[in-house]
Specification:
homodimer; alpha+beta; three-stranded mixed beta sheet; DNA-binding
Chain lengths: 140, 140
DNA sequence: GTTTATGCAAATTCTTTGCAATACT
DNA sequence: AGTATTGCAAAGAATTTGCATAAAC
């Protein structure tokens, strides 16, 4: 069988394309915003929690997805849309709505690069805004 | 008995100064960096976890402390050193070391204010950097 | 056939709540 | 007295691990 798009993405990130991983990647792409482990469990209900957990860890390690701690109690994830490892200049900002609990990727808002103090080695930046999203603001 | 400094701080933030709250505020001030609920439990070992938990929530509500999700599994907190509610322009950046697990306040690095998309109401910003701290970098 | 990945079940960790007892005003 | 706070014990929620089976190469 010919290589599908998902297999290709996995290989690009040096991840062995197994059935579970392809299915999960496919599932992740269907989410508009960010997703949690529980979201994936619901969508891909043939898979076990622990397999999803380990797959998420693997994908994060290989820079196929971003990890977002939004303080909601459950870790959120979103696909990284760069082919290779994410450079800091390309990272985008996330928005967590305190009313509906959703977390959005603000894809076109880049993380501002600032002067960091000497001595620290920067590997990753999480820029998370909390507040009310447009939908929740318009409701009263 | 005359008003001590901790009582004064609590009153400024419209928090009733009880014995537990004064003790916790005092304990929090002794931490150089950020602290977790477990850290407070160890330091103030006469107090119960649930009292600490509720005090943290109260202090956060009244903008006496910042809540930091650093992805370490445990929520971190740090005292807010402004007298009043924290304006976004005054918020500072945090650094989480992936080696030693400590989270630092970079007090003199302010959160850069950027153009946010229309429609979102910004209430709070968490700018968290992950990487290696100076101490862990110098160890080999 | 050997290595790697997965599912199941259970353990761990951190957070949160109900309720009775205590302290404050 | 009446309200707000605290401690104890237990529940909840999310994450993580051990181990036996199954899949991949």
């Amino acid at each position: 069988m010919s290589e599908n798009r998902f297999e290709e993405i996995l290989r690009q990130h040096e991840i062995r394309p197994t059935a579970v991983r392809i299915l999960l990647l496919e599932t992740m792409e269907r989410f508009e915003n960010t997703f949690s482990l529980a979201d994936l469990e619901t969508e891909a209900d043939t898979l076990d929690k622990s397999s999803i957990f380990r797959t998420l860890a693997l994908f994060a390690q290989h820079h196929l997805l971003h990890v977002i701690e939004d303080g909601s109690g459950a870790t959120k994830y979103c696909l990284c849309h760069n082919d290779h490892a994410c450079r800091i200049e390309e990272m985008h900002v996330h928005f967590h709505c305190e009313i509906c609990g959703k977390t959005f990727c603000l894809d076109n808002v880049h993380v501002p690069v600032i002067r960091y103090p000497e001595g620290y080695e920067v590997r990753e930046i999480n820029y998370l805004i909390k507040g009310r999203c447009p939908a929740c603001r318009s409701k009263r």
